[in-house]
Specification:
The protein is α/β, with parallel strands linked by helices. Helices cover 42% and strands 14% of the residues. It has helices at 9-16, 61-74, 85-91, 93-106, 135-138, 140-163, 169-172, 178-187, 204-209; strands at residues 22-28, 37-43, 77-83, 114-118, 129-132. Strands 3-2-1-4-5 form a 5-stranded mixed sheet, with helices on both faces. A hairpin with an 8-residue loop joins strand 1 and strand 2. The radius of gyration is 18 Å and the shape is globular. The termini are far apart.
């Protein structure tokens, strides 16, 4: 994916309209087989510009770490929230992603007066908000939220790898790579795997059909 620098145009316009605490919100981990879905919410300080903000998917891991440090040091406020695999299975991944974003927004104190979200609107929030298609590529606050969420989740997956290295979480962070699918075929599900999500057009259904019954635990 081509890296596109996110801009402050929308946030600046909203501040001119009287919304000072503008929070960007985004989630990561939606398409994974294992691990949580994590959301970030960030209110950038208009007086402390952070250059080179971009969608986390277009930024290298070392650059994400560098930007994470800048964001968390210089933002007016930021937060992260997660929904774990068991709850993802209970809610479904779409609702779980929205719930993670809702929790991230509600963890900011004081609350923002406007939220801008990548693509979706977050239900059950009594705060003004606007969904922005491809917002993580367009809006600096959403890009910052995507970076905070991505770095937080990646670091959590590294810790989970240390506890159980069989699945290779340090390499693929829970996504459906060939390495990950091969590990599922060999070891079966772990408590970190989402039972409700299966990648379309992959070998997962074939692999799953060959798992002994005792692996579905």
């Amino acid at each position: 994916m081509v890296r596109v620098r996110a801009m402050r145009t929308l946030e600046n316009a909203m501040r001119r309209w009287g919304f000072y605490r503008v929070a960007g919100c985004d989630e990561v981990g939606r398409g994974c087989l294992a691990g949580p879905v994590v959301a970030g919410a960030v209110i950038l300080d208009p007086a402390r510009y952070i250059p080179h903000l971009a969608d986390s998917k277009t930024v290298t891991a070392p650059e994400r770490d560098r930007l994470y440090d800048l964001i968390t040091r210089n933002a007016l406020a930021w937060s992260v929230a997660a929904v774990q695999p068991a709850e993802i299975d209970e809610l479904n991944i779409h609702r779980a992603s929205l719930e993670a974003m809702r929790r991230a927004v509600m963890a900011i104190a004081p609350l923002p007066d406007m939220i801008i979200v990548d693509a979706f609107r977050i239900p059950d929030l009594r705060i003004a908000q606007r969904g922005v298609p491809k917002g993580d590529r367009k809006c600096s606050a959403i890009a910052a939220a995507s970076i905070v969420a991505k770095v937080t989740r990646d670091r959590e997956m590294l810790v989970l790898h240390e506890h159980d290295p069989r699945y290779g979480y340090a390499h693929h962070k829970g996504y459906a790579t060939a390495e990950h699918l091969a590990a599922v075929a060999r070891y079966g599900y772990s408590p970190l795997h989402r039972r409700s999500f299966k990648p379309q057009g992959s070998l997962f259904d074939t692999i799953e059909s060959r798992l002994p019954a005792e692996y579905d635990t």
